[in-house]
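Design job #97: recover the sequence.
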């Protein structure tokens, strides 16, 4: 789509309205031929945006049920907007040359210079969706960091939002696709095709939120159904520690996946994707009001994926269904219900990666090689239920109650290769069915109040989450790899299985807590953001061979762990803010020790200072941050020979790990046609105590330098309708040290620094149909996402891939 067809729906707080300046309210004076028929208001705004080249920002609740008398003739942009809104009771203001915010009545925003008042109306909750905006940023506030609805500038931490438009431009299908383009985060394939690990600021990301509800990580959880992005509107990322909202967490980042919700205007999209190695994706996404008043709205998303992989003997089949209904029970009360189902199968699945020689030699493997066997596989299936209830009180306070329930199953027939001795490389595998069930509930109340003549905001909340997992190993198999220099993908016949369980494991993790947070206006330019959480955590597990006697039981519990948070934000002016924040860290861990028990929690602190600025009339946000984290008890991988299972890594608790660094990010619309995201992160994590003092921590997966750039530009003139863009992600090297089996000498396996370049182009055939091409890894760079000297944990990134996408909206 071109920018003329895009509708921006974004949340804006009253403080933003009152800060609007006359300069931003200047209207375009050039006359344009306008023809808007009388009818429903929101479709009329869509059509006006197309004809006049305007981007509107408004709450859909303001337009719901309202009609317009239309507008026609040769009109300036301001005249056209005024005529369309005449008699609706709404006002508007220009926030940029072509950006228009539909406003509440002047009686509630008195003194906003340049805003036109056209009547009176009550203001309800504001929408924060990003789909349809065409932008790489959002002005909408987020509760991910503090539970308070704060904009990025008001939040005393680094915040990034991957909008729906960015996901479209980059052809993102999975969460890993999104992470690869997210500032400051690196992704590595770890221990299997379906198990990716993400790191930020030198530490592993351990928290994932879904619509603001934290999901505890199970130790094999990533072999559950994947997070395909087709059902999500955006991904919010808060870097640094987020224990105030997540409870147990890491000073890396928190990733919040926000679902698409039903809209109150009809919108239907069909999309077909073809990839050069033989995979196809077909998607339907439809939403519309389900009754005449628009008080009941529905959405349905269906997606199918089938075809080969770039790796030999590998293919994937996936079917996804998502449905959601929003019901306005009253003027200020909305009930949301949703259901998702996904089935997924990967044939040629690799549990382990490529192996080294007995003394660390590299063999000449390629990204198209498969370290698994052709008949090995992974199947996954899950059902997800969603529910939330929101209510806005007459005094402006908000209440939200939300829940998410997941029932998942998976079956794995897969193996990895390890050296039995200096001359024998064996592949050890197992048939391992399992399950993962989880639930999360959360309630929050938030609002503003006056104290000492100043306005403040406060939020209270409580939440609970639990995840239960289990796996059994009914039978195992083993093969000798005769030629270690080449993959043995087709070398072995599929074995016949038995029904005698040789290993069984069960895990249960529950966490719950309550928080309070506030934003206090200490002076006109100075705000204190502070809060605290009490966190409870309970973990138990059993594992062992039932044929040899009772299983081993272990676990631990933490009660009422306090997690304080404090931050300051100082506004130098209406465009630039300085900030500082401090919080403590309490991180339970999924990694297991050499006696097969879960490691005790790591503890520490996280501090950050920085500056944020809005430029180009607020369309671009820039962030500069410096950070310091101190953690004791983080997992350090030990030699595989010490572990109880041949296909499971094990760890010890490390002494204090210190991480210092900084980052810079610039994101937004430089011009009306040019979207940009650029970032650079430096994070050096090292052991600050113990036998490894001074050495890098997580050197195998956490690069010190990460830089990313992505951009698109809408061409004009004779090339109108054509959008071109590209991206680059670069990182410094990673390495892993080992000891040779024959020589006994130390060796290092390393992946040097590399840069991956992507290109995209899209042509819009009118306002409804577009054809897009993406070329990922343009120069076909061969690289490893992670290196491992101890076992088969070496995986290559994807080679050059060409995708063609046809999208039609109706």
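Job complete. Output follows.
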């Amino acid at each position: 789509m071109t920018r003329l067809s895009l509708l921006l729906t974004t949340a804006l707080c009253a403080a933003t309205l009152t800060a609007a300046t006359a300069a931003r309210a200047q209207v375009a004076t050039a006359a344009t031929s306008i023809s808007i028929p009388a009818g429903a208001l929101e479709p009329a705004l869509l059509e006006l945006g197309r004809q006049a080249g305007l981007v509107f920002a408004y709450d859909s609740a303001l337009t719901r049920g309202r009609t317009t008398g239309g507008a026609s003739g040769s009109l300036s942009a301001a005249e056209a907007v005024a005529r369309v809104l005449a008699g609706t009771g709404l006002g508007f203001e220009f926030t940029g040359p072509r950006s228009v915010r539909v406003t509440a009545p002047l009686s509630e925003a008195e003194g906003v210079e340049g805003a036109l008042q056209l009547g009176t109306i009550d203001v309800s909750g504001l929408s924060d969706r990003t789909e349809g905006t065409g932008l790489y940023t959002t002005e909408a506030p987020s509760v991910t960091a503090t539970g308070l609805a704060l904009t990025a500038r008001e939040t005393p931490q680094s915040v990034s939002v991957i909008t729906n438009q960015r996901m479209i431009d980059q052809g993102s299908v999975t969460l890993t696709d999104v992470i690869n383009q997210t500032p400051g985060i690196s992704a590595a394939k770890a221990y299997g095709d379906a198990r990716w690990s993400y790191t930020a600021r030198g530490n592993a990301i351990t928290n994932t939120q879904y619509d603001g509800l934290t999901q505890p990580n199970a130790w094999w959880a990533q072999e559950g159904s994947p997070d395909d992005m087709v059902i999500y509107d955006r991904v919010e990322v808060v870097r640094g520690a987020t224990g105030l909202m997540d409870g147990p967490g890491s000073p890396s980042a928190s990733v919040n996946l926000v679902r698409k919700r039903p809209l109150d205007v009809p919108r239907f999209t069909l999309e077909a994707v073809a990839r050069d190695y033989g995979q196809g994706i077909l998607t339907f996404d439809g939403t519309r009001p389900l009754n005449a008043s628009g008080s009941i709205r529905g959405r349905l998303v269906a997606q199918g994926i089938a075809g080969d992989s770039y790796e030999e003997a590998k293919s994937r089949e996936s079917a996804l269904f998502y449905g959601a209904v929003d019901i306005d029970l009253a003027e200020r009360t909305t009930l949301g219900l949703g259901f998702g189902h996904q089935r997924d199968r990967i044939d040629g699945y690799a549990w382990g990666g490529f192996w080294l020689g007995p003394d660390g030699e590299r063999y000449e493997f390629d990204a198209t090689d498969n370290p698994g066997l052709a008949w090995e596989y992974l199947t996954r299936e899950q059902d997800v239920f969603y529910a939330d209830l929101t209510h806005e009180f007459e005094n402006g306070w908000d209440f939200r109650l939300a829940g998410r329930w997941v029932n998942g199953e998976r079956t794995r027939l897969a193996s990895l290769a390890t050296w039995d001795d200096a001359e024998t490389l064996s592949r050890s595998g197992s048939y391992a069915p399992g399950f993962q069930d989880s639930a999360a509930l959360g309630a929050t109340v938030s609002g503003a109040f006056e104290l000492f003549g100043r306005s403040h905001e406060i939020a209270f909340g409580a939440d609970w989450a639990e995840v239960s997992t289990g796996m059994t190993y009914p039978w195992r198999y083993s093969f000798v790899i005769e030629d270690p220099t080449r993959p043995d993908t087709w070398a072995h016949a599929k074995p016949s299985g038995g029904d005698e369980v040789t290993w069984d494991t069960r895990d249960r993790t529950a966490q719950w807590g309550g928080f309070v947070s506030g934003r206090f206006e200490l002076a006109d330019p100075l705000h204190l953001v502070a809060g605290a959480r009490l966190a409870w955590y309970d973990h138990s597990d059993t594992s062992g061979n039932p044929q040899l006697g009772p299983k081993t039981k272990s676990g631990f519990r933490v009660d009422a762990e306090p997690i304080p948070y404090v931050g300051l934000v100082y506004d130098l002016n209406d465009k630039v803010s300085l900030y500082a924040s401090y919080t403590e860290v309490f991180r339970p861990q999924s990694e297991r020790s050499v006696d097969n028990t879960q490691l005790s929690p790591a503890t520490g602190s996280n501090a950050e200072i920085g500056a944020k600025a809005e430029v180009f009339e607020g369309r671009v946000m820039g962030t500069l941050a410096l950070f310091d984290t101190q953690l004791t008890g983080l997992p350090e991988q030990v030699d595989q020979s010490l572990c109880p299972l041949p296909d499971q890594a094990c760890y010890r608790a490390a002494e204090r790990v210190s991480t210092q660094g900084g980052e810079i990010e610039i994101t937004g619309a430089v011009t009306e046609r040019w979207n940009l995201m650029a970032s650079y992160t430096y994070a050096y994590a090292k052991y600050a105590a113990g036998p490894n003092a001074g050495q890098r921590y997580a050197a195998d997966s956490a690069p010190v330098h990460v830089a990313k750039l992505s951009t698109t530009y809408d061409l004009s003139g004779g090339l109108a309708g054509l959008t071109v863009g590209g991206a680059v992600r670069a990182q410094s090297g990673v390495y892993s040290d080992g000891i040779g089996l024959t020589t006994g000498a130390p060796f290092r396996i390393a992946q040097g620094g590399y840069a991956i370049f992507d290109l995209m182009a899209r042509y819009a055939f009118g306002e409804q149909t577009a054809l897009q091409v993406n070329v990922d890894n343009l120069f076909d760079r061969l690289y490893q996402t992670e290196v491992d000297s101890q076992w088969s944990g070496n995986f290559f990134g994807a080679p050059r891939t060409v995708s063609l996408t046809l999208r039609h909206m109706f």
